[in-house]
Design brief:
Layout: E1 2-6, H1 11-22, E2 26-31, E3 46-49, H2 55-65, E4 69-72, H3 79-84, H4 86-106, E5 111-117, H5 140-159, E6 162-168, E7 170-172, H6 190-198, E8 205-208, E9 220-221, E10 223-225, H7 226-238, E11 245-250, E12 256-257, H8 258-269, E13 275-278, H9 293-299, H10 308-321
Bound molecules: uridine-5'-diphosphate.
Uridine-5'-diphosphate binds at residues 170, 188-190, 193, 205-208, 219, 221, 258, 281, 284.
Length: 328
């Protein structure tokens, strides 16, 4: 297949394009490099530095590209920032996706895999989370992703778009060969922050909330390895029927608490990693982990990394060898 990938220079996108290239697909990455890294883009892929809001460039690229499918990663994805700058999120995520869909429709491209999120569930009524639970996001980021899912459903009905929304839980880890990994600025995510303490780049990790109604009082999340996200995107695009909207939770099904994660990182790095109980971070649901039954049975996808230790080991190899990320 010839696949157009928005946001392919970002963390999840860059791992997914490697998987597509390995499987022999042609890949054109479209990324404005506002958060992504040129160095993260596989040399077998073509990189077009462009903005999704640039209607003329997008139109030209899709007209000339003969694409069979689109993978749509490009988005702003910081919950706190979305609360402070909601209109920026609605423009960057919703309006740009609208333009992408209009342009796909114009050029007859009818397959899409969309990077959605468990944040569309908000505070779920129970865990593990199944796809039929109500989607009631609690921040603008989650609401923008849910609005895009609605557009995809409506386009499937109206003009035969085939779309899969992959609702990821917490993307984690790095390429097993250590070539690419996580590099955000600023870094807000737990695993890289914990590993930066082990590297001596920060003094301690703050545990955001120790009084949650969870077994050890800290938040529980489902950390899914980027290599597994890569394989699931490839399978989703290869199996995408036209005219059908599908949605899947993408997680391991294992809940890991912040305290447990820090303990695993201590074991992997051999560093004591001082941790300080701190106030809750606004908007954090206590417990989020997936019921991955639907994706396992429908797409026959099995995550290779179900043990959190192996995911942290991959992340540690990357951060040790790239202490300044791609600038190292
Ligand atoms: N977290 C923490 N300290 C940090 C960063 C994150 O305790 O310095 C917690 C955060 O409150 C959440 C979990 O770790 O419960 C995962 O946070 P992350 O930002 O990695 O992902 P999120 O679940 O928000 O998408």
């Amino acid at each position: 297949m010839n696949i157009f990938v928005t946001g392919g220079a970002g963390y999840v996108g860059s791992h997914c394009i490697r998987g597509l290239c390995d499987a022999g697909h042609g890949v054109v990455v479209y990324d404005n490099l506002s958060a992504g890294h040129r160095e993260a883009v596989d040399s077998r892929a073509v990189l077009i530095v462009g903005d999704l809001a640039d209607a003329a460039l997008l139109d030209k690229t899709l007209r000339e590209g003969s694409f069979d499918a689109v993978m749509h990663f490009a988005a702003s994805a910081e919950v706190g920032e979305s609360v402070a700058k909601p209109l920026f999120y609605y423009r960057n995520n919703v309006a740009n996706s609208l333009l992408l869909l209009e342009t796909m429709h114009k050029h007859g491209i009818k397959r899409l895999v969309f990077s959605s999120t468990c944040a569309t569930y908000g505070m779920p009524p129970a865990v593990p989370i199944t796809e039929d639970m109500p989607q009631v996001p609690i921040n603008p980021y989650g609401r923008t992703k849910l609005a895009i899912e609605w557009m995809l459903r409506d386009c499937a009905t109206a003009w035969g778009l085939g779309a899969t929304a992959l609702r990821y839980f917490n993307a984690a880890g790095a390429a097993p060969d250590g070539e690419i990994g996580e590099d955000h600025d600023p870094e807000s995510h737990l695993i890289p922050r914990v590993l930066k303490v082990a590297l001596g780049e920060s003094k301690e990790i703050r545990i955001f909330g120790v009084d949650y109604p969870t077994p050890d009082g800290s938040c529980v999340r489902d950390y899914v390895h980027v290599a597994d996200l890569s394989s699931v995107h490839r399978i989703a695009v290869e199996t995408q029927p036209e005219g059908q909207f599908r949605c899947f939770n993408v997680g391991t099904g294992q809940g890991v608490s912040v305290k447990e994660l820090i303990e695993v990182a201590r074991e992997v790095t051999g560093h004591e990693i001082p941790a300080t109980p701190s106030p809750r971070r606004e908007g954090d649901p206590p417990e989020l982990y997936a019921d991955p039954t639907l994706i396992r049975t429908t797409l026959e996808w099995e995550p290779r990394y179900v043990d959190i230790k192996s995911t942290v080991e991959c992340a540690w190899e990357w951060h040790k060898s790239h202490p300044e990320g791609f600038a190292s």
